[in-house]
Design a protein that fits this description.
globular; 0% strand; 68% helix; Cytochrome C Oxidase, Chain A; mainly alpha
Length: 526
């Protein structure tokens, strides 16, 4: 135990990241079930308004700051040195410091549950002046701010470590145009983090000063402006959406190429599109503010439409990779396909709300809830599970049960769509988001009952996944070093890898070093 608590080994830190994000995911899932139980019927009094506010605030905070984004960071911790042939990350102690800041920050956010007055209740965006109110935003809100400050610093120092490692510690022969797409996506993510997270850190400090030292940054009665909070928050918040999706684009690319038995189609286009998304995402923050009347709606609408183009390039490349490939429908591949189908719905609804007239009609309704859940839940979360099934043998040396895995996929795919597809219709019928109850009008009762039933199916799928992990690890049947016949460098070392990753480095002469070795062995056997 002491060895794990004090380790600077990138693989152990990556495993601890993954385990901790799954722990936070379980907490967030329980909170989501409470939300759906409250909304299952109209005029429900199971949860009071303040309790409900605390629950949805912590659910959103956990999924965004403590699950989706940090899982990508944790997987990158494990994979980047393996994919580029490095023995470790450039700054191992800084890497450990980043992980422990993340853990302490996450626990600090949840510590608000034990505070007088309860946890943070101003939503995961914590808009001022709502987050400045004395009722419902006491010590729990302060702990939320402090916790996210630690998570923000953790993310910054970790991505700097990634970028230095990729630029300076690649193995001989591993040129920049040979590194796997997942590592490229993490570099693009790192660029975004460097631009987006300092404003988050600044606005959280300003909010803390406002609450306790009378800063009046966002108080119009003293010369402040609450729109300033929105600008600073969304300058972080929209790039953060791509911080939560770019790593998962990389995951899906790795899975699709491996199980199609084809090299990545349009490799250069994949790389360029990642950086195009990074650059364009810095110019779309204010499409969250169309209804404020304080931004140039036409400009930000145009930028928001434009960012769909590099995302579409990725879909073309995934389809091109699968085209005429020898596709194997493993659990990981099913989750990758589920990602594409769900994310496509999220992307199409995103294009809709990028139009100011449509945004005015659906703003702060359940249509928006459907949109971002299809993007980050149906998108990133499905790729997250695909990654776990794909790299679990490399990380732990055992393979997850495929039969249980495929059942998990179908339960989660059906449960997810039954849960969130009705929410678009709720929004069109006028149901506002962030309300703890609603009247029995139109079809809202039926739609909410369907969504709550879907949440139950989704929960069964997640429970089955954890059962699969427990059973597979207990049985401990060793996995081969390369169970999927992957193409990238990590499949050429043992499962799990040795301390410094490789006993001997194979020659790296292309983007597909593992397939090169397989072909050389086949030729030698003839």
């Amino acid at each position: 135990m002491i060895e794990w608590l004090t380790t600077t080994n990138h693989k152990k830190i990556g495993i601890m990241y993954i385990a901790s994000t799954l722990m936070f995911f379980a907490f967030a899932g329980i909170l989501a079930l409470l939300i759906r139980a409250q909304l299952a019927v109209p005029n429900n009094t199971m949860l009071g308004p303040n309790t409900y506010n605390q629950i949805f605030t912590l659910h959103g905070t956990a999924m965004i700051f403590l699950v989706i984004a940090p899982f990508g960071v944790g997987l990158a911790n494990f994979l980047i040195p393996l994919q580029i042939g490095a023995p470790d990350l450039a700054f191992p102690r800084l890497n450990a410091a980043g992980f422990w800041l993340f853990i302490v920050g996450g626990l600090t956010v949840f510590a608000g549950l034990a505070a007088y007055g309860g946890a943070a209740a101003a939503g995961w965006t914590a808009y001022a002046p709502l987050s400045e109110l004395s009722v419902g935003t006491g010590a729990g809100q302060d702990l939320w701010i402090i916790g996210l400050l630690m998570v923000s610093v953790s993310t910054l120092i970790t991505v700097i470590n990634f970028m230095v490692t990729v630029f300076l510690f690649r193995a001989p022969g591993m040129t920049m145009w040979r590194i796997p797409i997942f590592t490229w996506e993490m570099i693009a993510t790192g660029v975004l983090v460097l631009f987006a997270f300092p404003p988050l850190t600044a606005v959280l400090f300003m909010l803390l000063i406002e609450r306790h030292l009378g800063g009046h940054f966002f108080d119009p009665s003293s010369g402040g402006n609450p729109i300033l909070y929105q600008h600073l928050f969304w300058w972080f918040g929209h790039p953060e959406v791509y911080v939560m999706i770019l790593p998962y684009f990389g995951i899906v690319t790795e899975i699709v190429a491996t199980f199609s038995r084809k090299p990545v189609f349009g490799y250069v286009g994949m790389v360029i599109s990642a950086f195009a998304i990074s650059g364009l995402s810095l110019g779309v923050w204010a499409h969250h503010m169309f209804t404020t009347g304080a931004v140039a709606n036409a400009f930000f609408s145009g930028m928001s439409f434009l960012i769909a183009i590099p995302t579409g390039v990725k879909f073309v490349n995934w389809i091109g990779t699968m085209w005429k490939g020898a596709i194997e429908f493993s659990t990981a591949m099913l989750f990758a396909i589920g990602f594409m189908l769900n994310f496509l719905i999220g992307g199409i609804t995103g294009v809709l709300v990028a139009s100011p007239p449509i945004d005015y009609a659906v703003h702060d309704s359940y249509f928006i809830v459907q949109h971002f859940h299809y993007t980050l839940g149906g998108g990133s979360m499905f790729a997250l599970f695909g990654a776990l099934f794909f790299w679990f043998p490399k990380i732990f040396g055992v393979t997850l049960n495929e039969r249980m895995g495929k059942l998990t996929f179908w339960l989660t795919f059906v449960g997810f769509n039954v849960t969130f597809l009705p929410m678009g219709f709720m929004g069109l019928e006028g149901m506002a988001r962030r309300v703890y109850t609603y009247p029995n009008v139109a079809h809202l009762a039926l739609l909410n009952a369907i969504a709550s039933a879907g949440a139950g199916i989704l929960a069964i799928g997640f429970i089955l996944f954890f059962v699969n992990v427990f059973v597979s690890v207990r049985r401990g049947e060793p996995a081969p070093d390369d169970p999927w016949h992957g193409y990238s460098l990590e499949w050429l070392t043992s499962s799990p890898p040795p301390e410094f990753n490789f006993k001997t480095l194979p020659p790296i002469r292309s983007k597909n070093p593992a397939w090169d070795v397989d072909r050389a062995q086949d030729a030698a056997a003839l």
